[in-house]
Specification:
heterotrimer; A alpha/beta (536); B mainly alpha (94); C mainly beta (102); A: 536 residues; alpha/beta; FAD/NAD(P)-binding domain; seven-stranded mixed sheet; seven-stranded antiparallel sheet; 13 helices; 28 strands; B: 94 residues; mainly alpha; Arc Repressor Mutant, subunit A; two-stranded antiparallel sheet
């Protein structure tokens, strides 16, 4: 029997944060993880995170993972058990059993924090079990952990943030994405993520579903079909798509087996992803000594999981330390979580959390409607009106270089505001607000470009020469062009508009591999050119 | 027409959408009943792939929202383990 | 196929090793799972399903589905998506349920 104050189950972002919150307070903590490595989904996230500066917005998930894992290894209060699978919890005896290297281990913790995360939802369509049909997590594991190309031509099913991000990552890995299909009439994830793949020429089919996978021994194609407003298939709209992989990104379900077995009160809330434990705002379940954190408490994203992990850790620890300083931190985390969830994109999670406990409202406020961006949400491509709304006046356009932030959807994010050396970018008190540029302060330095997690900032120098402008844009592909190289210049749909000359390539350590490429183009294209493609 | 017998709900036990829909139409509208008949949820994945799909099918056919349906029961161990591990030949307390 | 150059990531591969899959010599790098090495070799069909004999391959890659079970060094029902390849391993695509004859 192994005695410990706290036992944390699950070594993903939530579990790591929970263990650290306890370990930092000198509380004896055991962290068990099923895999033989830590990090959960965080170690596959090569993109920059949204959120606020405090939660390290603007940093890549993999960098955050590295730092957290190093801290775990250094912390002497945390005993790490890898390759250790939870088997069951027996509430009467308060014993938690774990299997490690063929040995059954018994733990007797004073408090349990369960952070087992989620698993991917499956989808019903013909031949949905054919080799070549993978979950998005599997695709990410193959390419971002093992460096193995999952396939050559991928059809992505689902346009939530995971579907959009994995599509982008596939292209970075040298894989073609032949399309992203989405059953709903609009994009599920952040529109800026969609814009990124649209600029790379990926078609997006909203109001479409997959009907069947084609192939005998493995996937050779897919048949998709359009859906009407009532989600019924429209006959005659079937389309065949050539691909050797169908990637499913149709949502996650909380992994609640341990909680359900332990006897925690469970409730089914579609907005939270399915069956979740009933819990209070301190992350405590109906069984007093069991706390939860992360996706199994409701599907969200890694930033929320890390905050919930720390919150669960502190609240569980606080039952035997009672420290005023920690009480302040607890309040702060709750506030940060609320801010993160308070924008229009957080309405689903807010509505889910409000159903969690009868008579208790997690959220009083929060905004459900954002700016008018119907077309943008359907296509990932801003409308003419959207674009006009952010351009400075004619005089300023013609003066000196200026930044343009093509961010039209209210999402919780602030790296541009915090990284402008001249304080030209503001968004008021709410991180969900759209950023605004004070063009009298913007010097056109371009340091915001590589900071934006949505890769939505461009720098325009309209009067580069008598007949040409330059557009500076973020670039995260290989190979990186050379100065002087002639490249294809693409519009927001990834279509070639003109050839252009690369006049500047900016890359340094601080930019962490988001290089900035400046390309010279005829003046008429300064507000059209948004990507480049190397000519082979 | 959708070929329901060509859609796999449960990979572990090879159960198709046709099997599930037929059972529901015959009155088996509880996921635990369907589990005992088809072994859906009893294979190596312990219902991770099939569970949600079965609940949605029950809901669609009976008209009862998923929130009101009986949910799947989980029992330890969560996944396959070997007899030697159950017997505890390597454990401290034999 | 393995990714050699990546704009964001660097893959630090371990020592080159070999294992046997259904009689075929497969290259792997220490630290890779059996599934990753098979995939890199272009092998994506793993077995046929228990009752309906449908082809199956990798699906979840986190040890949560039953799609990738194989017999590894005589142990049936091994999840090859989470089992690391070792020098000289003998891997067999198994009969649907696996057997203990080895």
């Amino acid at each position: 029997m192994i005695e410990t104050d706290i036992l944390v189950v699950g070594g993903g972002p939530a579990g790591i944060s929970a263990a650290l919150a306890c370990g930092r307070n000198n509380i004896k903590t055991v962290l068990i993880e099923e895999r033989d490595f830590l990090g959960g989904q965080l170690i596959k996230q090569t993109h920059r995170f949204f959120g606020s500066k405090e939660e390290r917005a603007g940093s890549r998930g993999i960098r955050i993972a590295e730092d957290l894992m190093n801290e775990i290894k250094k912390n002497k209060n945390i005993d790490l058990y890898l390759d250790a699978r939870a088997l069951g919890y027996y509430e009467e005896e308060k014993i938690f059993t774990v299997l490690q290297n063929g040995r059954m281990l018994k733990f007797s913790p004073r408090k349990l924090i369960i952070a087992t995360g989620a698993f991917e939802k499956s989808l019903s369509f013909e031949n949905n079990d054919l080799p070549g049909i993978y979950g998005a997590g599997a695709v990410q594991t193959l390419m971002n952990i093992y460096g193995v190309k999952p396939a050559e031509r991928v059809l992505m099913i689902g346009s939530g943030n995971i579907g959009l991000i994995v599509s982008y990552q596939l292209i970075q890995a040298g894989v073609q994405v032949v399309g992203v299909i989405e059953a709903a009439p609009e994009i599920g994830g952040y529109a800026v993520h969609a814009s990124k793949i649209r600029r790379l020429g990926v078609p997006l089919y909203t109001s479409h579903t997959i009907k069947k996978a084609i192939g005998n021994e493995f996937v050779t194609g897919a048949e998709i079909i359009e859906l009407d407003r009532n989600w019924n298939e429209i006959k005659g709209t079937e389309k065949k798509i050539d691909c050797d992989c169908i990637c499913l990104s149709v949502g996650l379900s909380p992994l609640v087996d341990i909680l359900s077995q332990s006897g925690c009160e469970m409730v089914y809330i579609p907005e939270l992803g399915g069956e979740v434990p009933v819990r209070n705002e301190n992350m405590q379940t109906s069984i007093d000594n069991i706390y939860v954190a992360g996706d199994l408490a409701g599907i969200e994203e890694a930033t929320a999981a890390m905050l919930e992990g720390e919150l669960a850790g502190l609240c569980a620890a606080n039952t035997f330390i009672n420290d005023v300083k920690q009480d302040e931190r607890i309040e702060k985390i709750k506030n940060n979580l609320e801010v993160l969830r308070s924008g229009p994109k957080g309405s689903k999670i807010r509505s889910g959390l409000n159903k969690l406990i009868k008579g208790e409202t997690f959220f009083q406020g929060g905004r459900n409607t954002g700016s008018e961006i119907e077309a943008f949400k359907k296509t990932g491509i801003p409308s003419g009106e959207n674009l006009r709304s952010i351009l400075p006046d004619e005089k300023r356009i013609n003066e000196t270089p200026f930044a343009l932030i093509e961010c039209f959807q209210e999402i919780p994010c602030d790296p541009c505001v915090n990284n402008c050396p001249f304080g030209a970018i503001t968004e008021g008190t709410d991180i969900n607000n759209l950023p605004k540029i004070d063009y009298s302060k913007c010097t056109g330095c371009g340091s915001c470009i590589s900071r934006c997690p949505g890769l939505a900032i461009f720098l325009i120098n309209k009067n580069y020469s008598e007949n040409t402008s330059t557009v500076s844009m973020p670039y995260e592909m290989l190979p990186v062009p050379q100065k002087g190289e002639i490249v294809d210049v693409l519009d927001r749909e990834g279509k070639k508009i003109v050839s252009g000359k690369v006049v500047k390539v900016l890359k340094n350590e601080k930019m962490d591999k988001t290089n900035v490429i400046s390309v010279e183009i005829p003046k008429e294209f300064f507000n059209v050119a948004r990507n480049i493609r190397l000519v082979k | 027409m959708m070929k329901e017998d060509n859609i796999i709900v449960c990979r572990c036990e090879d159960v198709t959408l046709k099997d599930i829909r037929e059972l529901i139409k015959r009155g088996y509208t509880n996921i635990e009943e369907i589990k005992r008949i088809t072994r859906c949820g009893m294979g190596p994945c312990q219902g991770k792939n099939c569970g949600q799909i079965i609940l949605r099918e029950i809901s669609m056919i009976t008209g009862i929202p998923v929130e009101k349906l009986t949910l799947q029961r989980y029992r330890p161990p969560f996944g396959g383990i070997k007899f030697s591990e159950v017997l505890g030949e390597n454990n401290d307390e034999k | 196929m393995r990714i050699e150059k990546h704009p964001i990531l660097t893959f630090e591969r371990g020592k080159e090793i070999y294992f046997i899959f259904d009689g075929k010599r497969i290259k792997a790098f220490e630290g890779e799972t059996i599934a990753a090495a098979l995939h890199a070799d272009g092998i994506i069909k793993y077995n046929t399903s228990p009752k309906l004999h449908r082809p199956r391959g990798l699906f979840c890659a986190v040890g949560h589905c039953s799609s990738c079970l194989m017999t590894v060094n005589g142990v049936p029902n091994t999840r090859i998506c989470v089992t690391r390849a070792k020098e000289g391993m003998i891997v067999h695509s198994q009969n649907p349920r696996g057997d203990l004859n080895d």
